[in-house]
Amino acid sequence: MTRPHWVWRPGPLFAAEVFDQTEEQGEFASTVSLIKALNWLITQQVSVINISLAGPPNRLLETALARVRERGVLAIAAAGNGGPMAQPMYPAAYPEVVAVTATDNRGRAFRLANRGEYVDIAAPGVNIRHAQAGGGYAASSGTSYAVPFVTVAAARLLQSNSEPAVMLDALYASALDVGAPGRDQIYGHGQLQFQ
After folding, report:
1. Geometric angle at alpha carbon 29, from 43 and 69, rounded to 5°
2. Which domain holds residue 60?
3. Count of CB atoms within 10 A of residue 150's CB?
């Protein structure tokens, strides 16, 4: 018996550079660069935005993300890697953003993943093999590496239902409930399931 595979041909993919680097600050993403990127992505008519970063709350960014959601675009972000006792990280903790946590290949929570009521869903994010800038491959861990899995699943579901709220209900309903019964602060609605 062969296992069924789904075939999905996404539309165009867009990448917005938001990071800068200085000697004093190292690598960072400014509020201005994030908002410019969100605005540019909206003009490209994307349906889902992958935000693989986390930081402190920011009212300007929150307002920009509310506008993104009002336009029917879904923002999906990393819950953060501060550990189980860390404060919520943003933009994932904003209500209009889907917060993604990371799990290992056995479905266990990533030991450094943030926890909290804002966590919406879990996806693979430990020892994820990826291309490196400048060539080659590496394996890395973190909630940022889990976000693309949810982004792809959401984009795929949006092809059959263009209403983000309905699509999110379907995404969460299909998640495997792990941890405490129902939604919890570690896995959110559960582990993402690929269909």
Report:
1. 40
2. 48-130+139-195
3. 26
Q: Considering the chain, what percentage of its residues have pLDDT values greater than 90? A: 75
Classify strands 48-51 and 74-78 as parallel, antiparallel or unpaired.
parallel
Q: What is the pLDDT of residues 47-65, one digit of tens each?
A: 999 999 999 999 999 999 9
Residue 114 domain-assigned (yes or no) = yes
Least confident of 18-27, 38-47, 163-172: 18-27
How far, in Å, are 100, 107, 143, 145, 155 from residue 124 at the CA level? Answer: 10, 8, 8, 7, 17
Q: Is the residue at 170 inside a domain?
A: yes
Specify the number of domains making up the chain.
1
Q: Which residues contact 11 (CB under 8 A, 6 or more apart)?
A: none
| CATH number, position 103 | 3.40.50.200
Report the predicted TM-score, pTM, of the whole model to 2 decimal places.
0.91
In a domain, 153, yes or no: yes
- DSSP character at residue 137: E
Q: Which residues, in sequence order, are bridge partners of residue 48?
A: 74
Residue with tokens 């410019």: 36
* pLDDT of the residue at 10: 65
Cβ atoms of 63 and 88 within 8 Å: the answer is no
| pLDDT tens digits along 2-11 | 334 445 566 7
DSSP 135: S
Amino acid at 113: A
Task: Write out the two tokens for 167.
Answer: 């699509």
Instruction: Evaluate whether residue 146 is within a structural domain.
Output: yes
